[in-house]
Amino acid sequence: MSKGFNIKGKGLIVVISGPSGTGKDTVIGEILKENDDICMSISATTRDPRAYEKDGGNYHFLSEESFKEVVKKGKMLEYARYCGNYYGTLSDFVGQKIESGVDVILKIEVNGARQIRENCPDAVHIFILPPSIKELQERLKSRKTETKESFEQRFGLASQEMALAADYDYIVVNKDRSACARDIWNIICAEKLRTSRIKNRTDHIIKEVLYNG
Fold first, then answer.
1. Could you give the CA distance from residue 13 to residue 1 in angstroms, rounded to a whole number?
2. Over residues 93-118, mean pLDDT
3. Which of 19, 31, 94, 99 could form a disulfide with 158 if both were Cys (CB 3.0 to 4.6 A apart)?
């Protein structure tokens, strides 16, 4: 995937949400491996790490006490409680990246996305849907990382989350991983060329044409 013509400026905050089992991690991984000027925000969480997860790689794993202390210090861009655990975005990391021109993907749930919408009005919000409810159930079951209780809890939340998809700027259906990744990348490229984002960096081109045309 190529970004094409671009005038370097501040990076974008790209919020990606969707129910568990929609393939968010896989799609985001596809985007990241093809592009250098975009990164994934590493969220903090109070949930236990899965067998394949490493602290500082997949998440920053914190105790509930430590998490609340970070929130108290105002170091979370957003945070929410999801399936009994806290998740949040560390503000310093995101701020440093976007100021250096790097786009940052935030993979967060709908309550966290609402906070980003309020606190960062320039963020781009994308909701990923499964191709069907049946497919979503099969994907959750195939992960084999969920207990029966957690599966029922996550699936029960799915309908509530999908009901809020219309609040997002874009909706993308993940029927095919590569196609979904391309759709999201095209959205990012288009948003980076939105007039309101680049006007202050293209005015000199327009003025040059007007004065010398």
1. 19
2. 93
3. 19
What the block records as the tokens of 213 is 């045309």
- Lowest mean pLDDT segment, chosen from 31-40, 55-64, 145-154: 145-154
Residue 191 backbone zone (phi > 0: left; psi -120 to 50: alpha; other: beta) = alpha
Considering the entire predicted model, what is its pTM? 0.81
Q: In the predicted model, is pLDDT for residue 125 greater than 60?
A: yes
- SS3 of residue 126 by DSSP: strand
Map out the domains of the chain with their CATH numbers: 13-212 (3.40.50.300)
Distance spanning both ends of the chain, measured CA to CA:
35
Scored b (16 or more CB within 10 A) or e, 81-96 reads: ebeeebbbbbbebbee
